[in-house]
Design goal:
The protein is an alpha/beta fold. It is built from 8 helices and 10 strands. It binds adenosine-5'-triphosphate. The site of adenosine-5'-triphosphate has 12 residues, from β2 and α1. Keywords: ATP-binding, Nucleotide-binding, Transport.
Amino acid sequence: MAAPPAEQVHDHVAVARDVVKSYGSGDGAVTALRGVSATFRRGRFTAIMGPSGSGKSTFLHCMAGLDTVSSGSVLIGGVDITGLSRTRLTKLRRDRLGFVFQAFNLLPLLTAEENIRLTGRLGKRRADQRWFDTVVDALGLRERLGHRPGELSGGQQQRVAVARALLTRPEVLFADEPTGNLDSASGAEVLEFLRTAVDVYGQTVIMVTHDPVAAAHADRVLFLADGMIVHELPHPTIDAVHAAMRRLEG
Ligand SMILES: Nc1ncnc2c1ncn2[C@@H]1O[C@H](COP(=O)(O)OP(=O)(O)OP(=O)(O)O)[C@@H](O)[C@H]1O
């Protein structure tokens, strides 16, 4: 897929240009990404799929500034993050990006409310109370705000993690297997909320998943194989995602 011309970049909240990522050196070197270019428009939900080891997590981590690229560039909101110092990158991640992982990564001694407010407190952007209330109510967490993570179900913990990630109204919400640890009913609740966050609140979501049901909540699916984007599926249905995965897994 060719990189977009420069004048189109401002329409895109995240852009990858010919991203190559290798781990290690010499005989042991592994090239996880072999020149990946992709654009992500504001207010859209993209799922990233592909066989195990195809580079999905590596791609997400490079896009989110959690890992460095070997060559190529990544732009977030027009800023080339591949050239940023570690300090500026940390600040950009904290102020402009949101993260949800398979493991909920909540602080066990803090209540749900304290966990949700944590990122806002670390950064400069103080979340307004109205947005806090909107997110908490939409995620059905109102009655759980005083509970610690150990007192919540997996689905509730992940909903707290999603609320935390959205509290700063990030330019992009990155999710790595957000439903991987959840039963299908709890997973569906999280996915439906991500869909709402895109449709109602205009958020941008980029999500890695193994699950065709999860991917079918997205506006499009990008398929990776052997470190390259090999297919793009707009308006995915569960059946179409299954069929594409079957072709890739051969
Ligand atoms: N830190 C690392 N050091 C060395 N190799 C790595 C590292 N991280 C990933 N790799 C390799 O890069 C390739 C892509 O890995 P990645 O985790 O991105 O794939 P994935 O598609 O997310 O896989 P899975 O679906 O199994 O989670 C694999 O060959 C993997 O072994």
